Amino acid sequence: MYTGQVEIRQIPEVEVAYIRHIGSYLDTYSAWDKLSRWADQRGIHGGNQQFIGISLDDGDLVEESACRYDACVTLPEGFEQEAHRPQVEFKTVSGGIYAVYSYYDTVDKLVLAYDSMFSVWLPRSGYEADDRPCLEFCLNDPMKDQEGKCKVDLYIPIKQRV
Hints:
The protein is α+β, with helices and mostly antiparallel strands. The chain has 2 helices and 9 strands, in the order ββαββββαβββ.
């Protein structure tokens, strides 16, 4: 899964609208569907904004039924947030230094990419994991992909090892 092509990137913090899913990470499509419909109705789409998934729990430590996942879309400058509650929630996604790994495969194998990044790349990198959540910048819609695969840039939050 891990091929060694990891890039270190500094990213700014961004404001996002999000819909939270609680349950299996393999069932996040309902949150994405709701968020996509909401965003489309407001002219927010992949051409001008980014879609980011945030897995908030480690599936090895938290019961699958309790895992939290936020399906997010970045907001245009000056977007009036209060007018859109309670259909979606809003938050700031932390910027900072991230190790970025480009992934293209089926959604069910995404966990293997995470495992490889944390167990193979990170210990050899000179960095350690930061306490910010990992980010999944979604670059396609797996339902529209010819092979049913997702194209995602995984952003692993890191800091210099001391």
